[in-house]
UniProtKB/TrEMBL annotation:
This is GntR family transcriptional regulator. The keyword Transcription regulation applies. It comes from Haematobacter missouriensis. Residues 7-74 form the HTH gntR-type domain. It comes from the Bacteria. One of its GO terms (molecular function) is DNA-binding transcription factor activity. SUPFAM superfamilies: GntR ligand-binding domain-like (SSF48008), Winged helix' DNA-binding domain (SSF46785). InterPro entries: GntR_C, TF_FadR/GntR_C, Tscrpt_reg_HTH_GntR, WH-like_DNA-bd_sf, WH_DNA-bd_sf. Pfam families: FCD, GntR.
C-alpha cells in the first residue's frame, strides 16, 4: 500500500485501501493489521476500525476478532455470480462510452489514455500491469459519463482481480484493444458486445478452476 497520510475520516482510509487493492499493493487473503494501518496512515485506532467495518459491509474484507481484517477472497460460485452482473454492466459502460464519441474532447481523452495503457501493457508485470488495467477501466468510466456506473462497477470489479491472473496476457490485451476499437468507432452495439466478451473470458477462467 502506498505510504500516505490520511487525516481522520474513515471514508478516506476506505478509499486508500480499495485503491491499494486495485493497484496490486494489497492482495486477496492478505491480513490488515490495525497497528500497521494506523502507523502507515497516521490515523487513530477508532478510524481504522470504522474503515474496516465499512469495508466489511461492502464485502471487501472479513473481520476476524482480535486479528484485524483480511482482504476477502470470494469462492468460485460467488465469483461467477459477480462476473455475470459485471458482464452486463461492463457492456453497458462500453455502449454508453461509444455513444459519447461524437464529442471530440471525450473521444480524444479516451483514445490517448487507452493507447498509453495498451502501449505499456506488454512490458508491464505484476503491480504495474494491475495499475494499467485499472487505468483502462477508469478511462472507460469517464468516457461513459455514467455517475451510477462509476459508483457500482468499481465495487464489483474489486472482487474480480484474481480472475485476471488465470488469463494469458495476450488475451487480456487483445480484449482491451477490441473494446477500445469498438468504442472509438461509435458503434454502441459492437462496444457492448466487446465489453461483455471481455468479462466472459474471466467467467470461463473461473469455471475452469482459476
Amino acid at each position: 500500500m502506498a505510504s500516505e497520510e490520511i487525516n481522520g475520516a474513515p471514508d478516506m482510509l476506505v478509499r486508500a485501501i480499495i485503491r491499494a487493492i486495485y493497484d496490486g499493493d494489497l492482495v486477496m487473503g492478505q491480513r490488515l493489521v490495525e497497528a500497521q494501518v494506523m502507523a502507515r496512515h497516521s490515523v487513530s485506532r477508532s478510524t481504522v476500525r470504522e474503515a474496516f467495518r465499512r469495508l466489511a459491509a461492502e464485502g471487501v474484507v472479513d473481520i476476524v476478532l482480535h486479528k484485524g481484517a483480511t482482504i476477502r477472497r470470494p469462492g468460485q460460485e460467488e465469483m461467477i455470480d459477480l462476473l455475470r452482473v459485471t458482464e452486463a454492466l461492463v457492456g453497458l459502460n462500453a455502449r454508453l462510452a461509444a455513444e459519447r464519441m461524437t464529442d471530440p474532447d471525450i473521444r480524444l481523452a479516451f483514445a490517448e489514455e487507452t493507447a498509453a495503457m495498451l502501449d505499456a501493457a506488454p512490458d508491464s508485470e505484476g503491480v504495474d500491469y494491475a495499475r494499467l488495467r485499472t487505468r483502462f477501466h477508469r478511462a472507460l468510466l469517464r468516457a461513459s459519463g455514467s455517475v451510477e456506473l462509476a459508483r457500482s462497477l468499481p465495487k464489483l470489479q474489486l472482487h474480480l482481480i484474481r480472475a485476471y491472473t488465470a488469463i494469458p496476457r495476450a488475451a487480456h490485451v487483445s480484449s482491451y484493444r477490441a473494446i477500445r476499437e469498438a468504442v472509438l468507432s461509435g458503434n454502441g452495439e459492437a462496444a457492448e458486445e466487446a465489453g461483455r466478451r471481455h468479462v466472459v473470458l474471466l467467467i470461463d477462467a473461473v469455471r475452469a478452476g482459476a
